[in-house]
What we know:
- The structure holds two protein chains of two kinds.
- In chain A, 30% of the residues lie in helices and 23% in strands.
- By secondary structure, chain A is α+β, with helices and mostly antiparallel strands.
- In chain A, α9 (292-301) packs antiparallel against α11 (341-350).
- Chain A is globular and about 75 Å long.
- Residues 1-20 of chain A have low confidence and may be disordered.
- Chain B is mostly helical.
- Chain B has 13 helices and two strands.
- Chain B has a two-stranded antiparallel ribbon with strand order 1-2.
- The mean pLDDT of chain B is 85.
Amino acid sequence: MIPLKIRWFACAAALAANTVLAADLRIGMAADITSMDPHAVNITPNNNIGWHVFDALVHVDADARIAPGLAQSWRAVDDTTWEFRLRRNLRFHDGSPVTAEDVLFSLERAEKLPNGQYASFVQRLTEKRAPDPYTLRFKTATPYAMVPYDLNSIFIVSKKAASNASPEDFNSGKAMIGTGPFRFTRFARGDRVELAKNPAYWGGAPVWDRVTFRIIPNDPARIAALLAGDVDAIEAIPTPDLARIRGDKRFRLAQKVSWRTIFFHADQYRDASPFVSDRAGKPLPKNPLRDVNVRLAISKSINRQAIVERVMEKAAIPASNLVSPPVFGHVASIKPEAYDPEGAKQLLARAGYPDGFALTLHAPNNRYVNDDQIAQAVAQMLSRVGIATRVETMPINVYLPKARNGDFSFAMLGWGSFSGDLALRALLAAPDAGKGYGAWNWSRYANAALDKMLDQGFATVDEKKREAMAREAAAVALKDQAVVPLHHQIAIWAMKANINYVARTDEYTFAHHMK
Amino acid sequence: MAGYILQRLGQALAVIFVMSLLVFAGVYAIGDPMAIMIPPEATQADAARLAASLGLDQPLWRQYLVFLQQAASGNLGVSFAFQVPAVTLILERLPATLELAVAATLIALVFGIPLGLLAGLKPRSFVGRAIMAGSILGFSLPTFWVGLLFIMVFSVQLGWLPASGRGATVELLGIPLSFLTLEGLQHMLMPALNLALFKLALVTRLTRAGAREALSLDYVRFARAKGLTEARVIGVHVLRNILIPVVTVVGLEFGSLVAFAVVTETIFAWPGMGKLLIDSINALDRPVIVAYLCVTVLVFVLINLAVDLAYAVLDPRVRLGAQ
């Protein structure tokens, strides 16, 4: 409880700041923003801008849990019918009212836009209707609990402004009419995005009159821009600079456990895996990575605490799950595998590899925080228990196509998901194009029991029950050591000391949450 | 003359054709752009749909034929990452890079030629030696390090100049330019200087070597014997003769400044073409890579043409096109 007097003072100060000074905020962004069209290129930096200018029916809060957005409520009428109720008196930036027609138009556009990357979030809705201007009814072919989650990804545009609009019409601002906390001002590709306050925002007007997102992907340049006062806040602080910012009174850090988990995939489908051999380099009779004891030995041989403290400079926490602690479906009872090199050696011996074997660990070197250093550290730890590990790292543009192609035996991947069952669906369900399962399951881990639990979970519209099922499914996969979780990254922002940011698990940088 | 220019442009077309073939094969060898492009939530069906709509599900030779067909009608493809025509992307970044490259070249010439002349005329003096020592630094210090040093000193410590970005631009004939405003100039100073450093050292050394050689030649002695003032001997006769190698090198280097200013552009977050190329390679954005290199080849050809024309002006003995 804040004493009333202080609250009054804070309000007065905020009012004074708003009326006397034009409040400008400049934010340094770590990745390029490629398009303003909210239904075109599905990458985080684009969505980040989308969340400022537009809105979705469903929001995600700072803990990555779904929350009401433009829809004030929703419910499953029956197993295959969903009803969403829009907030009343919503208005677009041009003053026109938001109706169910705009929502239907947006869903349609996301599904039909040539080369659009958001269609998958609409395709499971077999029927979309608007019985009245504030109600939407969706039908799915089979019971499907993820409708609110999917609709979190569809930004609602104005039918009037965006009819027949191409991505270029959004880039130029012509069609950039949304309901979000900021109006669009200007997009200079490769340089910046400028926004202005939407005083009529339904969630409360933001404190900033103007916001500029500067695109500064180079780490030292972004830090320098903050230190020099060119920008007021930056995202994605490189770990070597953390100590410096912490020690500087002009700045403060905001941080939160991110949804991004770093883990290793182990080839579980080939008898002869391309990068596994005995210590002399000769092929092994069978693939040791298919043995759960070997995968457990690998997990035990990794000193996660040391990696978190030394390599990540504490910008991570050891992981036991595919999703981080705040996220839906995290199993708190499963603890990170303790560092136990002796136990690992025993497990290897029991599995028939008393002398260990040889392995090449593949990792990207420009994707995840300190990815190449993590790979080196893990390789040394594996070598210590007898798994002679070589490291091969490569840029992500070379790495991903190869990894997707099954060219590796033991490989690093990072994943962010706002629910555990969605992560399982993409990463560990048996690949099944018909159901959209296992699109990223490079290890080809396959467990019919897991798939069945996922099927049931996605058909369970009760969130509590579904979360229990998601946890159960995660426990099954983790018991099998289907992946070797390493750590959850901590997302870190740095800003001037007079700015506060409510740090977010989903790593988005929201100007309207900076005060 | 017109025939000569046509012949050069014909050569450029042939080079562009071969280059596009190489780039197509090269990007294909790196990997499938789909792997970079598909969002994490995408299912197999989404990936297949996206591949089909971008034509990436076709065999490489067919993709190349489609490219050639479109290129013939002036369309170099649509960027995978930006979903706008690749040529649009490049043209909107071109002014920023050109501006930076012109500024850097001007700095190199305006300071490099006088410094080189000074060092050439007085090679054994303290000033001459200091200039040569300084030029070694200009050669050997890595661009990215000098750039970061500039930022740390002039932006972070002293707070005199902005650390990065292009600042406000003013449109001149529809082209956004920085150098017309004070803010724009402030933003441009450090990146331009950073980019100029190497060229400055190069021009200084070339001018010095040229001057030293020319001073010992008969025509200079003759001019002096004729009683011409020292200013006229150096400023007209010597300078004109040593400018030919300087023009050649600066011309060639200007091409590389435009095409590969990537280090400076990255460090100073300057929204130019070099940064676009690196970003596109990282995203396996083939249409942009191909279009970028087509434009670059054209720029190189045009610059070389301009250099050849400049020879003819500087040295009346050069006859273009004549065998």
